[in-house]
Amino acid sequence: MKRNLKVLIIGAGTGGLALAQGLKAAGVAVDVYERDHSPTDRLQGYRLSISPAGCRALKACLPEAVYAKFIASAAKPSETVTFLDHRLNRLLRIDIPREEASDVANERPIGRLALRGVLLDGLGAIVHFGKKFVGFEDAPGGGVVARFDDGSTAAGDLIVGADGASSPVRSQLLPQAKRLDTGIVGISGKLALTSERRAAIPAPILRGPTLILGAKGRFMFANAVEYDKTERDGSPEPRRTPSPCDGLRGFEPERGLSGAERLAPNPEEYVMWAVSARREAFGTRLEALGGEALKVAALALVADWNPALRQMIEDSAAASVITFPVKTSTPVPPWPTRNVTLLGDALHNMTPFRGVGANTALRDAAALRAALIAVDRGERELLPALAAYERDMIDYGFRAVGVSLEMMRRVHADDAVSRAVAKLVFRAVDHIKPLQPIFIGRE
Ligand SMILES: Cc1cc2nc3c(=O)[nH]c(=O)nc-3n(C[C@H](O)[C@H](O)[C@H](O)COP(=O)(O)OP(=O)(O)OC[C@H]3O[C@@H](n4cnc5c(N)ncnc54)[C@H](O)[C@@H]3O)c2cc1C
Quick one: which of 36, 182, 228, 332 is 20 to 30 A from 73 by CA? Predict the structure, then answer.
């Protein structure tokens, strides 16, 4: 017998919105509560790489037309993953075969803002902005109640904490779960692409994710976000896709959007870069600095690096430059399942060095969607379905946390021996093709 489940999702981020899309499309009652006052509040514009696994999860969750918008809004698929040293000598290059005929088999880079725009498409009134979750309690007649900081409440059968790395839902559900500062801190920025700048950028960065290892545990990541060109009017302009921001319409689309990320005819093309090292290597408290001072700190870190890499930092707009501490989480064993669960960074927060945090959140969303649809249809009981979801998610989620941490350590190795070993590993994998997909998590 149909159960008519009512699901409350806390957090309109990557995983929460994908789950909301999947439940709404299947006719399951769902509401999303987000602390931001609009979709563009506070959103830093770094790009996410959605892997084939992430694409498959999105395809499972999104209505066909919304998935088509995701494909149209994503940048050119990556062709390679490259590891270099800071003089641009190749350590390892992994070719990513491009599957023209498939809409799930390619790596799809997409800006966070653009992805949120796609994921909001068609959700309308079920997403409530300006609702900061502060706690949950059992509802008197069964079910669960979410409380918000404006004094309002919402009742449902289940709360899904999709509220990111500092999750207040997790803090109440699992006070024992810990997030740890790794001691690594990063500075990231965006270089707007012009044809002149493009010509000066090291070629691997234009082909896909590029990981650059310097001396003394200093590291840089860089990747271009570019769009397929058409020969419209004979000019090689980026094609007009459905705007990545289409889903933001009706949600104050102009506020907080930067440059070409506004509802412009063409999406912004840029190189996203990030430098990182142990906090002490910067010699100053980065959190206190503005964009210009952060650029100076980033340049000081890479003082003797190849000039083309330094130029990318110098030419980046100060307003795009931010700093971020790198945190991770410690594995949590399964807990007694109740009608409050977690998804994505809210449980398995990981370092960004394998680029799998969003992809894992999407995997969670697809798995939880399938479980909750079965419950809604009366095919499964809620708690056993959630327990099975949690068991799997804890296992693959914390495995992803582990490999991200391992990659962080490898690329920031700061003593000569560990650095030599790390480089040896990259060069070995460069020669052993069957190892390459495993090395970048595409097994
Ligand atoms: C520099 C960088 C690069 C990255 N690159 C990649 C990449 O290439 N590929 C990849 O897979 N991952 C990447 N990641 C990781 C990825 O961004 C995260 O893992 C992913 O966004 C997590 O999704 P989520 O849905 O769990 O949380 P989020 O997307 O963070 O969403 C959480 C939402 O909850 C809301 N919220 C928080 N508290 C409350 C509250 N009290 N009440 C209501 N709402 C609340 C937040 O405002 C937010 O909207 C990167 C991360 C960084 C820092």
Answer: 36
pTM of the model: 0.90
Work out which ligand 1 atom sits closest to the CA atom of 14.
25
- What atom of ligand 1 comes closest to residue 345's alpha carbon? 26
**DSSP 8-state symbol, 189:** E
Q: What are the structure tokens assigned to 287, written together?
A: 């959190």
Pocket test for ligand 1, best of 31, 163, 211 (most atoms within 8 A of CB): 163
Distance CA 299, CA 310 (A): 6
pLDDT at residue 321 is higher than 80: yes
Handedness of CA 161, 163, 166, 169 (dihedral sign): negative
Contact assessment for residue 412 and residue 184, using Cβ atoms and an 8 Å cutoff:
yes
Position with higher pLDDT, 183 vs 258: 183
Pocket of ligand 1 (CB under 6 A): 10-16, 33-36, 46, 48-49, 132-133, 162-164, 168, 188, 274, 324, 344-346, 352, 355-359, 361
**Element of type H or E holding 52:** helix 52-61
Question: If you measure from the C-alpha of residue 358 to the centroid of ligand 1, how many angstroms do you get, rounded to a whole number?
Answer: 7
Find, among 443, 442, 417, 410, the residue nearest to 83 by Cα. Answer: 410
- Residue among 29, 21, 35 at smallest CA distance from 70: 21
**Average pLDDT over the chain, rounded to an integer:** 88
Who wins on pLDDT, 134 or 1? 134
CB-CB contact of 187 with 220 (8 Å): no
To test the pocket of ligand 1, the residue of 17, 188, 345, 408 to mutate (highest count of ligand atoms within 8 Å of its CB) is 345
Rounded Cα distance, 215 and 198, in Å: 26
Atom of ligand 1 nearest to the CA of 36: 47
How would residue 248 be classed by pLDDT, with cut points 50, 70 and 90? Answer: low
| Chain mean position to CA 279 | 23
Section 73-81 average pLDDT: 90
Q: How far is the CA of 29 from the centre of ligand 1 (A)?
A: 24
Domains of the chain from N-terminus onward: 1-35+130-178+330-412 (3.50.50.60), 77-110+182-328+413-443 (3.30.9.60)
Contact 262, 255 (CB under 8 A): no
